[in-house]
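User: Second chain of the day. Same drill as before.
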Amino acid sequence: MFHIHRTASALAICSATALLAACVATAPATPLAETAAAPAETSVSESETARFEQERQAILAMAGDYRVTFDFTETVSYVDGYELAPPKLSGGHEVVRVIEDTGDFISLQHILVVGGDEKFPIKHWRQDWQYEPASVLVFIGGNAWETREVSPEEAAGKWSQTVYQVDDSPRYGAVGAWSFEDGIAAWTPPREWRPLPRRDMTTREDYHAMDAVNRHVITPAGWTHEQDNLKLVLTGAPQALVREIGVNTYAADSDFDVAVATDYWEATASYWAVVREEWAAIAAEHPEFAITLQGETEDMYMPLLNLAWEVADGTKSAEAAGEEARAVIRDYITPEVGSLTDRLRPTTSLAGVE
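Assistant: Same format as last time:
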């Protein structure tokens, strides 16, 4: 059974910044004894290797310490009677660290630093990058996800980005190519569904999902996360409610208490590794799965965050907290996703939307 839960949360949504390092490869001279075809094959191989490393450096450039701004503006209404919401602009500081790098796989963890005179950390989102993926985990609406196979032709030369929430539950995924045209390093995937951002999940009840283009661009100051979002009502045939443009900027800046974030991560990293393993196991076991909560999932993520604090302050071991976290997660997961309609939280009705 799916339980309805709509509770406001102080957690924010954001990302981070850094500078793109140029990647230059020099091809060695080809021995004269080789056949005519051999130099061409060597050149292609070296060119592909150089391109792969250039793309890796673009992803790694997003790690660092940042001053961040989040700017979201609704631009066009598509439903009679809908009035554009006021723009939302916020900001803060965020630390992004590489927590795994195996060459063709890179994981970046984001941690917010918030508060007034007394700063404290909030574990934020995570982005995992996989080169030429065999599959990608995608959002299918109503707090449910599926593993979608990616053909070798579709994956060739591309990276998947999978984004995870504050409790390491999945958020959205897509496959796209890095481009370096006009001196700009940018990754742009096709449009994919995404859950509501927390800024709307805790304050609105008039739509169910985003249909979004999610672009990452490296800049001289750091990087940007650009979004072209359609807010969808999913009762009946999908209906776009309104278009929203988002521009999140990440400017390199270490003029804040970075240790607030890094100390927290050092203390809790082994606990969060267990949580990540549990979510990975669930995705591996079930081609489709859902969280049995409609809308905001605070009943699940708050216990997981609280366990991390117990590990951080030394009142509970990472091993003990990890076992409790596994039980919490499994308590809210089902492979029986049912129909989309049954998974959706109720929404307020609008003229023009059935």
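Residues 47-343 form one domain.

User: Great, on to the next one.
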